[in-house]
Amino acid sequence: MKIEVESKLSELKNLRANLGGNSFHTKKGLGQNFLVNESIALEIIDGANIDKDDIVLEIGPGVGSLTRYLLPRAKQVVAVELDKNAIPLLKNNTKEFDNLNIINDDILKVDLHKIFETNEKIKVVANLPYYITSPIIMYLLENDFGMESITVMVQKEVGMRILADPGTKSYGVLTLAVKYYAEASLVTNVGKENFFPIPKVDSVVIKLILKNKSELLSKEDELKFFQLIKSGFGMRRKNMLNSFAGIFGGDKEAVKEFLDKGNIDGKRRAETLSIEEYFKLTKLRSE
C-alpha cells in the first residue's frame, strides 16, 4: 500500500530545511542519524505490517521523519523521545494528525505496562540509536509488555549478531537471547549514505516476532538456560568441558557426564551449539 506523505522529511533537502529553519542541531551523543530515503521508510512500514488496529511504539522519533509514515496507517503512535529539543519539531511536523502521543523520556525508564494496559495490538517500530541498541532490545524482550513484533533499524554488526547461525563468528549470547524470545528475520539492508548526518557504519532493519508465553521456559529453567549460554560464551575459545566447569564447581568429570547425557561432545565450543541443544541441556539440568 502506497502511503502519500506531504513535506517529506525523508528527503534530505526537506529535512535539512526543517532542521535549519528551527535551529536544531543533531546530537552525536544521542545517536541522532535521521533516515533520508523514502523507499526505505516505506520498506520499514511494510515490513512491520502496520494496520489500523495497531498501537505503534516508536522509539527515538527525532523530528518525525518516520513518524509521518506511521501515523496514516496505525490506530495510534506512541513516540518516546529523549531529546526535549526535538519535541517542538516533532509536534509541528505531525500537527495534521490526531493519533500521536508524545512522551519526552528515556525509553528504559518509561512505564510501558501503564501505557499499554489496554492490551491492544502493539508493535514496535524504531530507528534505534547505536549506542544503546542491545539494552533497548533486551528490555523490550525480557519484559512482558504485550508486544507482537519489534521492527528496528540497527547497526549492521548488531543485526548480523542477532541473525547469526551457529558456528559463525557473530553467533553469541545476543543471538541466543533474542532467539529465545522471538523469531528474527532481515527486512532490508540500509547503507550509511541513507542517513543525515552520515554515520560511520551501515545498518540493517530486522523484525522480531515475539513468541507466545507458552513457548518459553519456566522461570527456573530460564535462569539455567541463560547461565549455560553466558558460561559457554564467557570463555569463547575454550571447549565446553572448560567453559561449563564453573557451573559444576570446577568438576570437569561432572561436566563430561552432563554433556554425555545430552549426546554432546565436550570438545565442542559453545558457539557451535544450536538453541535446541541449549534447551536440551537446560532440561537435563532440571532432572
Mean pLDDT metric: 89
**Global morphology:** elongated
Terminal residue distance? 52 Å
Q: pLDDT below 50 for ≥5 consecutive residues: which ranges?
A: 1-7
Explain what you see.
With 287 residues, this protein is of the alpha/beta class. It folds into two domains: 12-214, Rossmann fold; 219-285, rRNA adenine dimethylase, C-terminal domain (Helicase, Ruva Protein, domain 3). Helices cover 36% and strands 19% of the residues. The strands form two sheets. The protein has a seven-stranded mixed beta sheet, with helices on both faces. Strands 1-8 form a two-stranded antiparallel sheet. Helix 6 (133-142) runs parallel beside helix 8 and helix 9 (219-234) crosses helix 12 (275-285). It is elongated. It starts with 11 loop residues before the first helix and ends with a helix. Residues 1-7 have low confidence and may be disordered.
